[in-house]
Here is the input.
Amino acid sequence: MDSRKLAQRCRELAEDKKAENVIVLDVRKLSGVTDYFVIATVTSEPHLRAVVDEIVDKLREEAS
Here is the structure.
């Protein structure tokens, strides 16, 4: 999966867990470390953990 598709998939997964204001920033011209930032608003620390866990778990499933 290329980095753009990965960033978009992270966005979809965050939105599935009710993250708000999810944006994907293309920073390829600004950074040598990463291509995209995915930024989202969550309502609490447990909500944050749920969003992160969802993204990590689904991406692992899809990679295997």
Summary: Helices lie at 3-16, 45-63. Residues 45-63 form the longest helix (19 residues). The mean pLDDT is 96.
